[in-house]
Structure formats: C-alpha cells, structure tokens
Amino acid sequence: MNINILAGGPEDLLPNLTVEEGIWVGVDRGVFTLLKKGIIPDHAFGDFDSVSDAELKEIEQKVPSLKKFKPEKDETDMELALNWALDQNPDSIKIFGFSGGRLDHLLANIQLLVKPLLNNQSHKVSLIDNRNEIFLKSPGSYIIEKRPDKKYISFIPVTLQAAGITLEGFKYPLNNCHISLGSTLCISNELIDDYGTFSFSEGILIVVRSRD
Known about the structure:
The chain is an alpha/beta fold. The protein has 5 helices and 14 strands. It has helices at 29-36, 53-62, 77-87, 103-112, 114-118, and strands at residues 2-6, 23-27, 43-46, 65-68, 92-96, 124-128, 132-137, 140-145, 152-157, 161-168, 174-180, 189-190, 195-200, 205-210.
C-alpha cells in the first residue's frame, strides 16, 4: 500500500498528481486542491483555516473521512496526517505540496522525516515537488539509480556529523569521508553510471535529488 499526502503549497510547484497510485490524504488547503484536480481523498486532516466557508462545505460533502482540529494544537496539520499514515504501515509515503510557501513550514516538514528513523520505522517517506525529491537515510549502504529528470544529488547531514561517507559511481566520489553539520562538500553531485552506491556509518543524511 502506498499513501500520498498533499499539503497546501502552491499548485504551480506540484508534479502531475494523477499518475500517483495509492491512498490519497489531503492536509488543510491541499484537500481542496485535490478536489479541483478530480481526486477525492480518502482522508483529510487540518484546522482548515486556509479555505473559505464554501470550500470547507464542499470538502465536508465529498471527503469520506474528515478529521478537523482546532488551530491551537501542539502538532502541525502535516504532522497529524503523517502520524496517521505511519500507523497504517504502508510501503511508501509521498508528501506533495510541502514547498513554495512559508519557510518555517518547509523546514518543519523536512524535520518530520526524522521521526520514522528515530522510531526504527522502515517506511520510505519522501517530499516531492516538480523539481525536487527529498528523503532521509540512517547509516547503511544504498543503491541509487540515475534519473535524467533529477540529475543532481546532494547529501546534507542532519546530525552534528555524518561519518564514513563513501560514494561510488558518482562524478565526485568519496571514500570514508566525514562531514560536519554546515558542510557543503556533498552538494550537487551527479551519477556517471546508471547506478551508484552511497554508504555511511554514523549520523543521518538528507538526500536531495534535484533538477535546474
């Protein structure tokens, strides 16, 4: 089972959502965006302070499972939706509409990706817009495929240090390299083969696949 979550980011930054298979979940204004695109989400989460009364009425009429919260709460709408999605034990969780709006929301959404790793949950959670795909990895060895649509690959430490980074099949290879929080050493790399590998022994890495 795959779960797709749409937040309320600008529509011009969204990829083609109609090709995505799986259960759809809308977050706040993202629910209405899905309805406009002809996608009826199975579930909706939010305080819905970013939709009009008429839009909220349409949401209430069309969405089978609506969970409405007060604006004054400890979790963001996205965190509530992600917590529900993680509890479903899906094969993957894709989050759209996360970028292009408020910077604090963007940073908070990236930080939410740490939670599955800290809880030893193996779900593949990624943030996706029409230029980027972002996911986090804990120590290990991983195969990564060359993609012409997103040729740039960056590795950014979330923790104070990411140790033992080795990159094979990349334009700029590394062997057992340690990078600290704030380093830009692993920004904008590229694969030279159809597949490459990256591995590291300590820390947490943000992996960003991008295009110009």
